[in-house]
Amino acid sequence: MGRVIAIANHKGGSGKTTTIQCLAESLRKLGKTVWEVNADPMRDPDLMAIEIGDCEHGISSEILRTRIDAKRDEFDFTLIDCPSSLGLLTVNALVAADEVIIPIRCDHKAMEKLSELMAEIRIVQSTRNRELKIKGILLTMVNPSLQTTLVIYSDMKKLFGDLLFGTVIRKEHKEDYDVLASEIL
What we know:
It is built from seven helices and five strands; from the N terminus they run βαβααβαβαβαα. With 185 residues, the chain is of the alpha/beta class. A five-stranded parallel beta sheet has the order 2-3-1-4-5, sandwiched between helices. The protein starts with a strand and ends with a helix.
C-alpha cells in the first residue's frame, strides 16, 4: 500500500511546490513510483466546488481521499501539493494523507504562522483522520552563511525537537532533496 504525504503550509512562498517536484524526482531516483497531486482549485472543477463550499458529492472533506484511495496501490508515494490556505482543500489533503511534511522558509515570520497550521492538523487528527502523522518540519531556502539561519534552526529545534528534519534545503541545492528522500524512507 502506497504512502500518501501532504506537503502543507498555508503561507505562500514556503517551497511546497518545489519540495513536491524535487522530492518526487529524488524518490524516483531511488526506484519509487510517485504520483504528484496538485490540489489547485483552478485546475479542477470538483476542487473548486470544495473550496467555495458548493459540493454535492457527499462529505466535502472526503472527496480527495476517495480519489487518492482509488489509485493508492498504484504508487509507492502520493505527494499532495496543498494550496496556500487553511481552507477546505487543505483539510481535504490532510484527511487523505497518512503523513504531512511542513516546508517552512527559514525566517522568523514564517515561524510565527506555523502554530495556525499545527492547530489545524490537530483538529483533523482528532476529528477526521486519527492516523495522520506529522512526518516533519522541513526548513527551506536556507542560507547557511547567515547568522540568522543558525538562530532560526536553534529556535526551531527547541520548539519542535525531533519533528524538525535533520535535512535542510539550501537555496539552489536540489541535491538536498536526495538526502530528504532517504530520510523519509
